[in-house]
Amino acid sequence: MSETKGSFTAASIRQEAQRLFAARGYAAVSMREIADAVGIRAGGLYNHFATKQDILRDLMTGHLGELLAAWDVTDPVNDTAEARLTAFARFHIRFHFEKPDAVFIAYMELRNLEPENFAAVEVLRRNYEGRLRAIFEAGAGKFCLEDSAVATRAMIAMLTGVTTWYKPGGRLSIDEVEEIYINMARRSVGLPALTKAPDEQGGTRHV
Amino acid sequence: MSETKGSFTAASIRQEAQRLFAARGYAAVSMREIADAVGIRAGGLYNHFATKQDILRDLMTGHLGELLAAWDVTDPVNDTAEARLTAFARFHIRFHFEKPDAVFIAYMELRNLEPENFAAVEVLRRNYEGRLRAIFEAGAGKFCLEDSAVATRAMIAMLTGVTTWYKPGGRLSIDEVEEIYINMARRSVGLPALTKAPDEQGGTRHV
DNA sequence: GTCTATATGGAGATAGAC
DNA sequence: GTCTATCTCCATATAGAC
């Protein structure tokens, strides 16, 4: 059966495949490795996913669907465009901190998707981009930018990049890194950095 | 012989491997495919590279070495930090437009490097990051940023991202995209967008 | 330096017992 | 739903003729 969605084993396959794909890449991970991690034999995987490709597609569409849904319930739609932009940047960074494996796969494994699956994933990815672009367009005149489509891609690339280097336990806390990225994102479209409450330390400074 | 550096065949292997690795990924490309693209049999590859891994290492260290060397002859070291930052952003974008395959491999195939090769590549990558960080630190007080190491990574991620979507022949020319990215990079660290000569069109505007 | 031929291993996927 | 066993194919890499 392809994708028996409810079962515990299917969830375990998703989890272990996600971990392995993120660590070493889809093409480099074998079905036997996934099965070993789950604790079954390779043949057993095929009770849940018809092909290895189906696992990848399931992970990517599932992740991007969750990302979109999570933003749509976070977006302060009745607030100012400036506030919505800040909320978007904060949401994007936090989501990426919380689900680094899913995020990594979503942008590293696009080329391993078969054409039909790639098209489906692209729709979701473009929808997410569209959410940010809509904020830029809703705030026309409030931002300083040359092109909303390019600014969208540039900003998402910048924010997503945090996953490639940040590891907990380093010099900076997650909250500190988040603040820095939000301020860079805001400044990149002409907004001032966020100001902090007077009793806090470590606000924006000139170096 | 591992890596007969001067031969025409070795150069052709590098070129075809780079194209194939960029398009479909190191793990998904076979030595037979590379050989076919070069016009020899698979066994003949081993006269030039001892292993498939050696081809990848050669491509990545070669690219990063070129990137560093090219920047070091471009850097206007005696100019202001602001001018050097703008020069860096422009250089980075142009280099990435000109060598998209090499760039793509350099940041997508890190996890397919064996530990020793990964370490060597990381040294080069960190050196390049260090060039930008040094500009931020040389211009202390002129930029508005919270942390030079984080700003370096965020800015490079933003600039590099252009390779993931830009295709010639679209709505915007390379020069237009370059200008937009440079302005976003400048604003992200507190600098004003570049002003254009009065007779030119399409300068920074508010949308 | 390239060829043909091959060694050796592992890949994705399937069949059928339980 | 998982198992064992296996099919078929292709991977990296090597040996030795030319």
UniProtKB/TrEMBL annotation, chains A, B:
UniProt cross-references to Gene3D superfamilies, sorted A to Z: Tetracycline Repressor, domain 2 (1.10.357.10)
SUPFAM superfamilies, sorted: Homeodomain-like, Tetracyclin repressor-like, C-terminal domain
Domain HTH tetR-type, residue spans: 7-67
Residue ranges: DNA binding: 30-49
Domain of life: Bacteria
GO molecular function: DNA-binding transcription factor activity; transcription cis-regulatory region binding
KW Transcription (keyword) present: yes
Keywords: DNA-binding, Transcription, Transcription regulation
Protein name, as recorded: TetR/AcrR family transcriptional regulator
One Pfam family it belongs to: TetR_C_24
InterPro entries referenced in this protein's UniProt entry, alphabetically: Homeodomain-like_sf, HTH-type_TetR-like_transc_reg, HTH_TetR, KstR2_TetR_C, Tet_transcr_reg_TetR-rel_C_sf
Keyword set includes Nucleus: no
